[in-house]
Design a protein that fits this description.
Blueprint (H helix, E strand, L loop, with lengths): L4 E7 L5 H12 L4 E4 L7 E8 L3 H7 L4 E9 L1 E3 L8 E4 L7 H10 L2 E5 L8 E2 L2 E2 H6 L9 E17 L5 E11 L5 H12 L3 E11 L2 E2 L6 H6 L4 E2 H8 L2 E3 L2 H8 L14 E5 L3 E9 L2 E7 L3
Parallel strand pairs: 3-12, 15-16
Antiparallel strand pairs: 1-3, 1-14, 2-3, 4-11, 4-12, 5-6, 7-10, 8-9, 10-11, 12-13, 16-17, 17-18
Family: Belongs to the pseudouridine synthase TruB family. Type 1 subfamily.
GO molecular function: tRNA pseudouridine(55) synthase activity
Protein name: tRNA pseudouridine synthase B
Amino acid sequence: MGPDGLVIVDKPAGLTSHTVVSRIRKLAGTRRVGHAGTLDPMATGVLVVGVEKATRLLGHLALTTKTYQATIRLGQSTVTDDAEGEVTATAEACGVTREALEAGVAKLTGDILQVPSKVSAIKIDGKRSYRRVLDGEDVELTARPITVSSFDVHAVREAVAEDGTALLDVDVTVDCSSGTYIRALARDLGADLGTGGHLTALRRTRVGPYGIEQARTLEELADDFAVLPIGRAAAEAFPRWDVSAEQAKRLINGVRQKAPGLGAGPIAVFGPEDRFIALVEERRGETKILAGFAS
C-alpha cells in the first residue's frame, strides 16, 4: 500500500494525464491513484495526483479555480481548436489592432457562457465528444456557464503560416473556474476578431492552492518520490475546523452536528493531535460528511 497524499506533478508535453497516473502508480507501489483536472497531451504544468486515501479529495479539488499561461495564434482555425488538429481555415491577422484585441478579450472575461471544444472528453449519450468527431459525426455541444476572473494579454508577436499568410501569436494568462476550455477561448477570440484562432501552447501554473513552484517533474519523482501528506493537503485546500475528541467521535459515527459557519464548500475537519477526520459541508446549519478519512 502506498502513502496517503497528493503529488503535484509538472506534466511534460506529449504525455496524457492517464500516462502520468500510470507512472505514479509504479513509483507509489499502488494502483489506487487518480488525478484532478485533465491536461491535454500538448499541455504542460500542474497536475494534481492523489495516492491512496487522497484520491477521495480529488473530486473536490477538481472544482477549484485554475491559472494558465497560453499562446493563442490568430489567423488560423483548427478542428481541435489547438495546434494538434488539422488547420481548417486561414486568414490574415496582421490588421488586428491592440485595441481590438483587448476588446475581444474583455468580451471573454467575467461570467460567460462557453461552448466547449468539440474534440473534448464531454460525453454525449454515453460517448465522448472527441470520439464522435473522429468517427465523422457533426457534434453540437451546449454552452455552459464559466467564470474567467482575468484574461491578460502580455505580448503580441508576428508569425507566418506555411502559405505565407501573416498571423499573430498572443501570449496570455487566464484565471478561470473549473470547466473552462482555454482552447475554446482561443477559438472564440479568433472568431470575434474575424481571423479564426487556436491554441499553440498551454501551461497550467496553478490548481487551487497548488502552484507550479510546488510541482516536481517525473524525473525528480523517480529519484525521490514523496507525497504531500493528506492532512496538510486538506488544510491547504479547504477551510479548517478543529473539533474536540467527542465531536470527532460523533462525526466518525456519522452523527450530524451544528455547522461551524465557515461558508459554502468543503471543510477539512481535524480532531485532537492534528488528525484529519473528514471533509464536510454545511447543510441547513448542520454538517454533512462528504468523505471520511478516519479509518
